[in-house]
Specification:
- The protein is about 40% helix and about 20% strand.
- It has about 220 residues and is an alpha/beta fold.
- It has two domains: about 45 residues, no CATH class; about 170 residues, Vaccinia Virus protein VP39 (Rossmann fold, 3-Layer(aba) Sandwich).
Amino acid sequence: MTGETIGSRRRSAVRLKMARKHKPSSQKWLLRQLNDPYVIAAKEKGLRSRAAFKLIELDGKFGLIRKGARVVDLGAAPGGWTQVALERGAARVVGIDLLDIEPIGGAVLIKGDFQDDSMPATLAEALGGPVDLVMSDMAPNTTGHTATDHLRIMGLAELALDFAFRHLAPGGAFVTKLFQGGAQGEMLETLKRRFAVVRHAKPEASRKDSRELYVVATGYRPEEG
């Protein structure tokens, strides 16, 4: 199911019952959720979140999830990307988050910090080999201040990239969320040195008013020595 077919769905708008019980900001969020075609489609397909469709689009475009791949999903809660990786043929998927994640058949879900010193041993046991794909849909709590929010998400993306450098197999891939802005130049230069191909994408499933985009890097080249 593509972003175009989902996004083009036409349904009668759902109205919020008992709206007076909710603050205006909550009313706006609830109405958007109730009328979002991706939220509706995710529920119909048994996916944990609408964000699953973003990975479906990225994988369809860039071929990130190979059959039999070992995949790590950073900031995995509630599990939508982990579900997609399994459904698309990954042999082993580890989802890591500071939050609890409801069990997903076929996945190893770890509650903890992916930067912990114990993580390499934990991953080695769970995956049985080096990682083929590191993916991160992590985003900070936004403040509304563009510069601050951009720096916050860059910090998360850089942590995810450092993790990828330490765990990816040669030829592996990396995908992470960013916000549109001017602070990612240094990171992109690093990606271009260490990966064969680096591209940007904004999936159809991303909300039109969102500044998010994804950077996709394939063909990992470990540093010699």
